[in-house]
Request: fold
Amino acid sequence: MSQLREAAFTSKAWPFEEARRILKRYEKAPPEKGHVLFETGYGPSGLPHIGTFGEVARTTMIRHAFATLSDIPTRLICFSDDLDGMRKVPGNVPNPDKLKAHLQKPLTSVPDPFGEYESFGAHNNAMLRRFLDTFGFEYEFISATDFYRSGRFDTILRRAAERYDAIMKIMLKSLREERRQTYSIFLPIHPETGRVLYVPMKHVDAAEGTVTFDDEQGREWTLPVTGGNVKLQWKPDFGARWAALGVDFEMYGKDHSTNTPIYDGICRALGERPPEHFTYELFLDENGQKISKSSGNGVSIDEWLTYASAESLSYFMYLKPKTAKRLFFDVIPRAVDEYHQHLRAYEGQDLAARLNNPVWHIHGGDVPVSTLIVPFAMLLNLASVSGAQDKAQLWGFINRYAPEAAPGTHPDLDRAAGFAVRYFNDFVKPTRAFRAPTEPERAALVALRDALAAYDGPPEDEALQSVVYAVGRDRFDPLRQWFTALYEVLLGASQGPRFGGFIALYGVNETVALIDRALAGELV
Reply:
């Protein structure tokens, strides 16, 4: 056994813990299908959401951890439930009124409100795939519409008709009495209107593989369960899909957790072994509400990438997946800086520590070197005090601080500078609140201004931090009151960077001028 594999078997990183659980499924014999199958599901009722990326990113991390532990080949399927009927018109699409006539039709039969694809389902699928491709994920995409209509699902659908009573028994236990009276695992798609019908079955013919029902006008129809003429209700569909594909692992949000026994039971009723599961906590918006694809709250896929790198998003997804986290714009700067902190730490770590480092899982073991020599939070403050409108202005300060740095040699820093200007103008600038100093703070600022004006040492972080400390040490108890004053008076924020580092980056003379402006009341 290689040293890497040996270390992976004892690593406490959660992707390795999940991978070992999957491997245990095949401790007696390898899978007959010749591979281990990972799956993620996607409900394209609204525009693709960042939570969908989280599922694929985390599943990919576990998949790579599994490949480190075992030589069994793996596959990852991203499955889109695009045959689902459109239950309501999403609130974040153009021309929503035009979609009302298509309610209850499969999403792949609803016109694209954006006018770009053959259907609304195809539009959302394309957006999902575009994003996954941007990140370089290795996956196979399956459309439920294709899966049902191509015949790939037919064997399991016939088996569902044969074992209809057993599956219904599982489902009826979970339903209220009034729902039980009309419930069926099969949802026929009306041959004339194309709508997905929620009607009771008059007869399920196991031998013929057909269902008989009355439509909403009372007309009787008999349709085969195969070929895309019917679809399964979403809970039976979940378990049946596992059975049809031979899924070994799937993760889903906490809101699905109570349904796990149902999904498993249906998979077993269809004669197959349920997969391993991983339940993650849901993301919350700035108000503590669950983010939703249809309402579009929280942060979207494209919005995160407008203000930060893809790797920082992967880092955010890695962190404590079983803990609910706020997913709003203010988490982005910290995610960027913490990601690069882990990159820098990785270089000096031993193998065991590296396998526990998030960046090993984010990059599949091929970890790059960070070139972000100025923290993102510092760049935001620099953008604030300099009024920079583009990253070229920030580079003027950066080059004085680090003459060896350049966009070509420090691409992380170059990208972050552009992101910082954008983030500052969109989020920080509109909410900045400068205040005038109190009399004790004014006296301290005058002392700092004079100390910096007389400073003739090197423009280095630690030396300048000592100057800042010396001014505040005898005037403030606790000392953090001094730094809070610096941030609120000079930067218009309640918190900020290590101030010596900020002075070194912004410039000693420039900081003196900034203090003069604050003392003159020009910042308020």
Q: What stands out?
A: The longest strand covers residues 36-42. The chain has 23 helices and twelve strands. The chain has a mean pLDDT of 92. The domain at 439-519 is CATH 1.10.10 (Arc Repressor Mutant, subunit A).
